[in-house]
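lol ok so funny story. i was supposed to be doing the assay writeup but got distracted and ended up predicting the structure for this chain instead. priorities right. anyway since i did it might as well share w the group, maybe its usefull for someone
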Amino acid sequence: MGSRTCAHLIQSAAGVMVFAEPRFATAIMEERDLAGMADANEELDRVVAELLARRPDIKMLFLVGSCPSEVIKLDLSRAAQRLSQRHGPALRVINYSGSGIETTFTQGEDACLAALVPEAPALAANAPESLLVVGTLPDIVEDQFRRLFAELGIPRVDFLPPRRSRDIPALGTSTRFLLAQPFLGETTLKLEDRGARRLAAPFPFGARGTTDWLKAAADAWNIAPDHFDKVVAPGQTRAKRALERHRQLLDGKRIFFFPDSQLEPSLARFLAEELGMTPLEVGTPYLNRDLVGVELDRLPAATRVSEGQDVDRQLERCRAEKPDLAVCGLGLANPLEAEGIATKWSIELVFSPIHGFDQAGDLAGLFSRPLLRRGLLKV
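and the output, tada:
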């Protein structure tokens, strides 16, 4: 629920979410809503009823708050309860905040998954241990991970979010979970409140990151080291082969990360370890050391790590160091390009399949292509 600006931004995001298969629209708030001339709850009820009349197959509906809806104090939590009672039990209505007033755009996923955790049924106290992979992944990547876990011999593996809303996995003290995304701090706390235990690991970016991520699960299930090596060897070989041609271009190049997505520490580790790049500065909107501490420990000692948005100072440092590549938001890309600094849009790193062995080459290509393009454009 938001303004026409919110509608424009979310539809723009839909245009680049090629692999995410978005399922959303915007209920636009007009001037009469913001001025209090209309009952916002009545309007919301009417819009939801119209939507369900057109799409009776919907089983779960999210009410996502925006800056305007939060400014006028529209209580979406109470609205979700009211609509669930009115249209349930076939429909579950859940709410979370997608407001840009106090969040980064990746926190929308964190808020959404955190809202799903209370919907999960309780796992029996004597249930066998199960593995939960947390974080939105393209179906093809999820299928790849499922095959690897099955080959390792981990019997039960679930994913959050599930492909179907009715399949939210049960949670309990026998649940162990791996994070697939480094920005899921609130979801982690909700899962731990339900008794689930997190397996600390680097994130599955590149050959080494994916290997270490899988190894955290293998160790928790006491998988024999020789069996683990046998299972992951083909994927490692494919990933290293795919990375090699990108390493030829990226090795020795210097990179500067502006804070944008919270993926920055994990991606900097991948680029330094597997492609020979030198991260000059790794800026991130929020620094959760519990989740990315292992990534920070593997960065080069000279790498500067900064938290939060201080754009003027970050621009000054970037200009002074003249990196070969800067990773930044759309608003900074064109000015930096005009100053002779090649850029990579950070939003592409969120909307592209980059996890796992078979996506390692695609991930590296996101960083090598801007340099290839700049080389072709030089006269």
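The radius of gyration is 22 Å. The chain is about 50% helix and 15% strand.
back to the writeup now i swear
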